[in-house]
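## Example pair
The file below holds two records. Each record gives the amino-acid sequence first, followed by its structure token line.
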Amino acid sequence: MFRTTVHGLAFEDRARHLDTVSPQEELLLIPDPPGGEPDDVWVHIRDGDPVGHLPREIGAWLAPWMRRGGAARVQVIKVGAESVPSWKRLLVEVRCG
């Protein structure tokens, strides 16, 4: 189990989804398909839209692990205000197992 921020919120108007998520809510983790660079793990809201991705240092090991059958769950810990930099606005907890 670890906590991390979600990156990439500032692109493609993904930050609009932050109004719909709240602490304790479970989101979805989806790894990039094999063979891509970088190897990201994307965070999606329950209806499927992407919010952003986990930091690349995490995606580098988590994406291959998930593609081999590893299961990971993600839950919202904190949603920051618009005044917070985008890469710090969404804090999540990831549980692997």
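Second record, same layout:
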Amino acid sequence: MRVSMIGTGYVGLVSGACFSEFGHEVVCVDKDPSKIERLLRGEIPIYEPGLDDLVARNVKAGRLSFTLDLAEGVNDADAVFIAVGTPSRRGDGHADLSYVYGAAREIADCMDGYTVVVNKSTVPVGTGDEVARILREARPDAEFDVVSNPEFLREGSAIEDFMRPDRVVIGTERARAQEVMRQLYRPLYLIETPLVFTGRRTSELIKYAANTFLATKITFINEVAELCEKVGADVQDVARGIGLDGRIGRKFLHAGPGYGGSCFPKDTRALVHTARDYGSPLRIVETVIDINDSRKRRMADKVIAACEGSVAGKTVGILGLTFKPNTDDMREAPSLDIVPALLGAGATVRVFDPEGMGEARKLLNQPQILWCDGPYDVMEAADALVILTEWNQFRALDLDRVKSLMATPVMVDLRNVYKPEDTRKAGFVYHSVGR
């Protein structure tokens, strides 16, 4: 089948490459000339493990191409995916749908024959209705259906999530559109992936409900971690003890500095605003947002407390800046709250991240930050070492070497990477989360 993917951001590029791996002919379209030029040169504008090889293989096979010309991508396409950004709108937290609606208007001008227009972007309930209205208003005689097909890709494991998903959610009650979507995802039949067909509005809500529930789960265990510190319990054992209950599950029960990234913060806010608009407020989700925002700020206080109540004139080493490992994504990362708070308290901060340094420099452009070349550079003459992102290369540090490099052997492990007994045996004053 012929597929057009409008938008070559994280979702669009990964989805387009994976569809081409399925054997479909995919054209990825973007308005950003520099991004398309890079892709045409074989350069991947985002960091995602395995994506460079996947793109190169399918470009070479002639199944994947890139263009600035939307008409070239949409003409003769069986399915046109809208995979543009839906960031939080400034001032009110609603999802900004201007890119989605703009794409719909341009698609309307280029549709040729029956076309399934698929919302892959994360959008509030009712967005598909408005996209259908825009298309119909522009092309009264066109044959098309609008489908919701939300993505459930985790940064760092997105290719595996696409190729072996827990489920594929497809929002349409139109038989013709359902058949097109079945053919697009036909390779997943072999591994018996559930295709969940729902109404379009239900599909749109499933995406927000899923992300919001996961954010709630993270926030819950973070609150439990604070209680564990007060009563002398171990949050990791608590998480294991409740996670083995099949009704709860073990995933997303890892205490840390709070959730971040491109999805959870904006999706929780957008769902809260949608619920308020419909007169059905989600009090639990509102509380989750408040707790998560305050938790990030409190993590800086935790570091300061570990430094005997003051970091003024001291050096703090930070390992990891991205919101999670195996990505270069800095959006809503806890580091964006923690590092400025430490600087504001008078610290000099030394930082290193395996993939996020470029983007972090744009967002944390302060003279008191020293950008280091590797993890051990961070530790030189540091009064405290903070593990902020659990990259694999930070999991087996030479603790003797770390101690020898630091001015004061204080470690604040915000991801519970190390065992307290091991670090204390090595001579560190060790602080973790919920233990």
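Notes on the second record: The CA atoms of residues 419 and 432 lie 9 Å apart. Residues 290-431 form a domain with the Rossmann fold fold (CATH 3.40.50.720).
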